[in-house]
């Protein structure tokens, strides 16, 4: 078992990474006998893990309830959020209630936002069940929902009281979703850690066969990297933006496709290649590193081009609305070398269009 503490003064919390986390009620669960929890999950995860976790908590003296939401990114919406509020209000849940998000990033983000806003804020625990949520979405307190006009446009910063990562749950994840998590992992390495990038080049095949020690190392490294950023910049006013590498382009893909077809990680993978090509056009990156990135993404089963039906004009429409853009100016996180990125302000729109076309025609 590995434990990483996110140090944020009063809002500090542990991330626990272990096998068999649903088997024993260990001290890693920050719950006491008599606590009331509502497990929030979806109709894909519920049949596999809900009863196991609920039974464990009930056996340990926790008063449990559950809410099963429809699966899918398109349900990270105001309508679904309201379903959570209605459930909590109908059953008179008070401010001592603890929500548990059991699922991927969608369940984590919406449950976290419900916890941030229900009766002005209640506690919640993240139990991420996708690789993507384990290495990224469950950590750092960004919570929220999508709007038809833009992804993650409504939300709040609200830290969980713990993140409980069970490696066993990755065995039921589809290959497409596993790859999606690899996109964020590769993002961390490009943005922050060149030796981790080299480690990924040598250990990707182990990760793909779910070799447990490699998974443990990889997930722990990502959690450490994310912890190192959010403890300096919890509210994304500075250095935290490096974690958005590929995201301004990727969010455009997700929004354009209506949060369906392409997974978040697939969109980010194509977005990373677009950021790489923008950096190449700005002469701030070298071709051999660009090739290494393209090869690693491809080996991870990820796309290195955007969807065929999207034109560069489509991207720019959404990119100008991105939270990092101010008055239509494009401010982009771009790589300088593997392990280093910087935000480039007011990038020329024409150059961005050409880099998107470079990516899609390569
Ligand atoms: N808050 C943050 O800091 C942050 C960071 C990155 C991404 N995100 C958000 O996370 C979301 C993407 O998360 P995601 O990739 O986990 O998507 P997801 O939550 O939609 O999960 C992907 C699919 O896998 C299924 N699933 C989950 N766990 C499973 C398991 N163990 N076995 C089988 N199937 C399982 C889900 O039901 C879903 O169908 C996006 O909305 C993105 O914006 C948030
Ligand atoms: Zn992401």
Characterise the protein shown here.
The protein is α/β, with parallel strands linked by helices. The protein folds into two domains: about 1-170, Rossmann fold, CATH 3.40.50.1970; about 200-360, Dehydroquinate synthase-like - alpha domain (Dehydroquinate synthase-like, alpha domain). Helix content is about 45%, strand content about 20%. Strands 1-2-9-6-5-3-4 form a seven-stranded mixed beta sheet, with helices on both faces. Helix 4 runs parallel beside helix 5 (about 175-190) and helix 8 packs across helix 11 (about 310-320). The longest helix has 19 residues, at about 210-230. The protein is globular, with a radius of gyration of 20 Å. The model has no long low-confidence stretch (mean pLDDT about 95). The structure holds nicotinamide-adenine-dinucleotide and zinc ion. Nicotinamide-adenine-dinucleotide binds near residues 129 and 142. Nicotinamide-adenine-dinucleotide binds next to helix 3, helix 4 and helix 5.
């Amino acid at each position: 078992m590995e434990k990483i503490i996110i140090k944020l003064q009063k809002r500090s919390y542990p991330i626990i990474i272990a096998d068999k986390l649903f088997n024993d009620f260990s001290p890693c669960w920050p719950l006491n006998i008599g606590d009331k929890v509502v497990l929030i999950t979806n109709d894909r995860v519920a049949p596999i893990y809900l009863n196991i976790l609920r039974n464990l908590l009930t056996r340990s003296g926790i008063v449990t309830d559950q809410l099963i939401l429809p699966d899918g990114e398109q349900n990270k919406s105001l309508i679904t959020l309201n379903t959570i509020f209605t459930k909590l209000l109908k059953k008179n849940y008070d401010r001592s209630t603890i929500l548990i998000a059991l699922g991927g990033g969608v369940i984590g983000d919406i449950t976290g936002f419900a916890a941030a806003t229900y009766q002005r804020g209640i506690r919640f625990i993240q139990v991420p069940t996708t690789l993507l949520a384990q290495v990224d979405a469950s950590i750092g307190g960004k919570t929220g929902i999508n709007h038809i006009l833009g992804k993650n446009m409504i939300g709040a910063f609200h830290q969980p009281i713990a993140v409980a990562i069970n490696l066993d749950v990755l065995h039921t994840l589809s290959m497409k979703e596993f790859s999606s998590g690899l996109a964020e992992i590769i993002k961390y390495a490009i943005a922050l850690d060149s030796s981790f990038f080299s480690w990924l080049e040598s250990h990707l095949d182990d990760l793909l066969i779910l070799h447990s020690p490699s998974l443990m190392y990889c997930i722990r490294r990502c959690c450490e990297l994310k912890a190192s950023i959010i403890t300096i910049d919890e509210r994304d006013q500075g250095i935290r933006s490096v974690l958005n590498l590929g995201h301004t382009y990727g969010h455009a893909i997700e929004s354009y496709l209506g949060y369906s077809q392409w997974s978040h990680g697939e969109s980010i993978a194509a977005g990373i290649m677009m950021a790489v090509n923008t950096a190449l056009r700005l002469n701030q990156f070298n071709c051999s590193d660009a090739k290494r990135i393209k090869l690693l993404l491809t080996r991870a089963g990820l796309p290195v081009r955007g969807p065929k039906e999207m034109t560069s004009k489509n991207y720019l429409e959404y990119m100008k609305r991105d939270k990092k853009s101010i008055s239509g100016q494009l401010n982009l996180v771009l790589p300088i070398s593997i392990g280093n990125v910087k935000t480039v302000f007011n990038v020329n729109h024409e150059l961005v269009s050409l880099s998107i076309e470079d990516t899609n025609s390569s």
